[in-house]
């Protein structure tokens, strides 16, 4: 166990020092992947630990991103109407846009709005004991509703184009490399914090309740736990992570559109976690980074057939590594341990026969 | 003596199939009560109603002075009723120790559990209980790796550590070897020193050997009650149950 913690520190150290050895372009890509990794930690908590498969985390990510983007858009417009509203013939800033002039309000709502939506949705589904496939389908339906809504209300949300063309955050230029490095480091810090927090959660008695719910929810209920509370809490927590990831994403990518919170991104999020190993938090992080790196590597080098590569990767991982990369590592360690034990035993046999 | 549990005219209707048709029935303190009856008599359904898994559509279930007919499962557990299921329901991915830890009598609210720490007292309690169910040597093994009989014991242990006032056991000895059965029977009588036990069992030898009071159910009703000898001499029972079984043998 001890040398594993050491590996974690090394991993985060490598992330923190990335600005020294990566080009600006690569760093911005990595920063984006780290946002995805934050979502992946949340999905690992609900799917890997609690057994709730949500195919709708794009919505929470998108809501968080839109909240931040609204602030950035208003700061960019400097008191005028945002450009897309003028094009749609809106004359006055809608009332719900007003408070987003305040960055703290924007960040606060980027967390609280996804949490409220998630809590509302999960409370009613889990209370009525809807689970498994039905819950997954329901979460997809929510995605469709929100994407349709965001595209339809073009004068409020920018429609299919989404929100883009930001210039500054807190008065600092978003295009300056230094600002980007600071935002990157903040993302790493956030990921590190979320990872440590989630790790603490999963190793506490609370974490064992989550695993117990996954194994046999009925049994947990008949031990006197109100499982609805636990599931709503962990689901909302993962929505909060996704919302935060959305904030950091918009700051680094400078764009959020309905296509980024749609059904395909939502399913991709689950795939990252499947690739990394859903039962492992660090696995989920590595899965998100590895999958997205592979995606950009294949698309840069084999632009014609990169989707085939990616599809092949997913199929082979799901078929041959049901516990993902983290599962591969675990079984490697176990095999090594077994071999060493066998060697020791053999050694003791030899020494016994010699003596 | 006041009964621990009282069922009054309990009705259960599964979309037209009347699984329980007015069950009247009591369990008294420190009693080991066996519930027998042919398949489909409604024994397991009755346990389900008591612990809140199935809702009764008529009648009342009174536990001490609480009406628990419409309570949610976790609240019923809080009052002191715990249930062991027919096929062992334990957490396979957790160790034996962790299974026990979750079952401890504790504040099971979200924030209490987030801050929960194992006290020495709790630790000792778990060790004592694990010794009693012969699982101390397996404490750090995944529960999924235990044998079937050990899983049954683990689940019984998980109920005991909650210090219930009424323990519901659904076929506790299914899949156990002869020696394990014997131990389980003794364990059940030890348990009854502290709480009332209600057992559904199919194995007649086991019932004969360990029962004092037996209730026979048939087609969703209580047919008769008494000691095993009385019941064996009851003609109605022989007709619906024992007779048929003997013929089948």
Automatic annotation (TrEMBL), chain A:
It is found in: Cell membrane. GO terms for cellular component: plasma membrane. It is a multi-pass membrane protein. The chain crosses the membrane at residues 6-22, 29-49, 104-126, 132-151, 181-201, 232-257, 269-290, 305-329. Its main location: membrane. It comes from the Bacteria. Keywords: Cell membrane, Membrane, Transmembrane, Transmembrane helix. InterPro entries: ABC_transp_permease, ABC_transptr_urea_perm_UrtC, LivM-like. The keyword Cell membrane applies. This is Urea ABC transporter membrane protein /amino acid/amide ABC transporter membrane protein 2 (HAAT family). It comes from Paranoxybacillus vitaminiphilus.
From TrEMBL, chain B:
InterPro entries: AAA+_ATPase, ABC_AA/LPS_Transport, ABC_transporter-like_ATP-bd, ABC_transptr_urea_ATP-bd_UrtD, BCA_ABC_TP_C, P-loop_NTPase. GO terms for molecular function: ATP binding; ATP hydrolysis activity. SUPFAM superfamilies: P-loop containing nucleoside triphosphate hydrolases. Keywords: ATP-binding, Nucleotide-binding, Transport. Gene3D superfamilies: P-loop containing nucleotide triphosphate hydrolases. One of its GO terms (cellular component) is plasma membrane. Coiled coil: none annotated. Residues 5-244 form the ABC transporter domain. It comes from the Bacteria. CDD domains: ABC_Mj1267_LivG_branched. This is Urea ABC transporter ATP-binding protein. It comes from Paranoxybacillus vitaminiphilus.
């Amino acid at each position: 166990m001890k040398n594993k913690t050491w590996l974690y520190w090394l991993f985060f150290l490598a992330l923190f020092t990335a600005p020294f050895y990566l080009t600006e372009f690569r760093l911005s890509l990595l920063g984006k992947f780290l946002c995805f990794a934050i979502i992946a930690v949340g999905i690992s908590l609900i799917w890997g630990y609690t057994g709730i498969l949500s195919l709708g985390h794009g919505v929470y990510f998108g809501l968080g991103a839109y909240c931040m983007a609204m602030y950035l858009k208003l700061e960019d417009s400097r008191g005028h109407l945002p450009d897309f509203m003028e094009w749609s013939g809106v004359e006055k800033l809608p009332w719900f846009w007003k408070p987003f002039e305040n960055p703290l309000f924007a960040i606060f709502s980027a967390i609280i709005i996804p949490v409220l939506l998630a809590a509302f949705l999960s409370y009613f589904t889990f209370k009525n004991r809807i689970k498994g496939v039905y819950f997954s389908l329901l979460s997809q339906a929510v995605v469709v509703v929100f994407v349709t809504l965001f595209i339809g209300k073009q004068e409020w949300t920018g429609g299919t184009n989404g929100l883009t063309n930001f210039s500054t955050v807190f008065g600092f230029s978003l295009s300056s490399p230094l600002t980007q490095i600071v935002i990157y480091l903040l993302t790493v810090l956030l990921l590190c914090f979320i990872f440590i927090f989630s790790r603490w959660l999963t190793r506490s008695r609370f974490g064992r309740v989550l695993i117990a719910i996954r194994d046999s929810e009925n049994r947990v209920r008949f031990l006197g736990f109100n499982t609805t509370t636990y599931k709503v809490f962990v689901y909302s927590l993962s929505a909060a992570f996704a919302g935060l990831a959305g904030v950091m994403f918009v700051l680094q990518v400078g764009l959020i559109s309905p296509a980024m919170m749609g059904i395909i991104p939502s399913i991709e999020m689950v795939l990252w976690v499947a690739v990394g190993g859903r039962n492992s938090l660090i696995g989920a992080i590595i899965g998100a980074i590895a999958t997205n790196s592979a995606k950009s590597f294949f698309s840069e080098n084999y632009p014609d057939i990169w989707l085939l590569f990616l599809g092949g990767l997913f199929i082979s991982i799901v078929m041959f590594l049901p516990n993902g990369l983290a599962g591969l590592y675990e079984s490697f360690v176990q095999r090594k341990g077994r071999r060493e034990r066998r060697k020791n035993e053999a050694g003791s046999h030899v020494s016994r026969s010699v003596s | 003596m006041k009964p621990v549990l009282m069922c009054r005219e309990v009705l259960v209707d599964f979309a037209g199939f009347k699984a329980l048709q007015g069950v009247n029935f009591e369990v008294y303190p420190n009693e080991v009560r066996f519930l027998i009856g042919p398949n489909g008599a409604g024994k397991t359904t009755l346990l389900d109603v008591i612990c809140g898994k199935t809702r009764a559509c008529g009648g009342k279930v009174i536990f001490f002075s609480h009406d628990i007919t419409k309570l949610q499962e976790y609240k019923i557990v809080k009052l002191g009723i715990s249930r062991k299921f027919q096929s062992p329901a334990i957490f396979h991915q957790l160790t034996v120790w962790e299974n026990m830890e979750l079952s401890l009598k504790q504040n099971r609210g979200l924030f209490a559990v987030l801050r929960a720490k194992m006290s020495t007292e709790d630790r000792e309690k778990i060790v004592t209980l694990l010794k009693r169910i012969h699982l101390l040597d397996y404490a750090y093994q995944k529960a999924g790796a235990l044998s079937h009989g050990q899983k049954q014991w683990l689940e019984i242990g998980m109920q005991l550590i909650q210090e219930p006032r009424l323990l519901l056991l659904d076929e506790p000895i299914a899949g156990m070897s002869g020696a394990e059965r014997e131990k389980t029977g003794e364990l059940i009588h030890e348990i009854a020193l502290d709480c009332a036990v209600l057992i559904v069992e199919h194995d007649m030898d086991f019932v004969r050997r360990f029962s004092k009071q037996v209730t026979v159910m048939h087609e969703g009703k209580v047919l008769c009650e008494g000691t095993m000898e009385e019941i064996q001499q009851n003609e109605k029972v022989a007709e619906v149950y024992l007779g048929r079984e003997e013929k089948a043998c």
